[in-house]
Amino acid sequence: CLKTLPQSVLLGGTAEAVKTGVLCDETLFALFENGSLSNAPGEVIARCVAYKAGVVERDEREQGERKLLNLGHTVGHAIEKCSNYTIPHGQAVAAGLAIIARSAERLNWTLEPVADRITACLTELDLPVNTLYSAEALADAALSDKKRSGGEITLVIPEKIGLCTLKKIPVSKLLPVIKAGLGR
User: Fold this and answer.
1) How many CA within 13 A on the CB side of residue 80?
2) CB 96 within 8 A of CB 177
3) Sign of the dihedral through C-alpha 143, 146, 151, 156
4) pTM of the full predicted structure?
5) What is the rounded CA–CA span in Å between residue 184 and residue 180?
6) What is d(CA 54, CA 126) in angstroms, rounded to the nearest whole number?
7) Residue of 182, 3, 11 lying closest to 90 (CA atoms)
8) Looking at the DSSP assignment, which residues form a beta bridge with residue 165?
9) Closest by alpha carbon to 103, among 158, 151, 152?
10) CA gap 152, 170 in Å, rounded
């Protein structure tokens, strides 16, 4: 079945699977780092589906833990919006994941270095790790995201591979956070 998918669709699913490894499973993430994805796609898919199903079962209405599934999505959705949805979701999420990882590390929100591992992994898988859109354009687009609540927006922060947390920040701090992650 996977061999019949267009490359862009396969890459989108791969980005979401990498995100799952960053969220909750160092061992799963290592499968991507060491090139085992092509050797064990069934295992990767089963682990990702089991994780997401468990999260949704425990937090059906996205009141807490389920919000973690938005890792990479705040900036990813902004990239999609800025591109007028010409950049596919998975590729936008991959870039968003790399950007938030760099930002979190530069802002000392991580427990250990994560940005280089995430960026190297995504690059090896032919997924984007940056965008041409400005921090200003991305922040503006992100302010209409569902993760915004009044004057705050909730970001998912990779503290280390396999552990992410939710961090509420004032919307006024979003632009500097995105700037830190763009690395320009």
Assistant:
1) 19
2) no
3) negative
4) 0.92
5) 8
6) 29
7) 11
8) 157
9) 158
10) 4
Q: From first to last of its 184 residues, what are the pLDDT tens digits of the chain?
A: 888 889 889 899 999 999 999 999 888 898 888 776 667 788 888 888 888 888 888 888 777 888 899 999 999 999 999 999 999 999 999 999 999 999 999 999 999 999 999 999 999 999 999 999 999 999 999 987 666 677 889 999 999 999 999 999 999 999 999 999 997 5
Judged by DSSP in three states, 163 sits in strand
Are 15 and 21 in contact, with CB atoms under 8 Å apart? no
Structural tokens at position 118: 């995430």
Helices (H), 25-124: 26-33, 41-58, 73-82, 89-106, 115-124
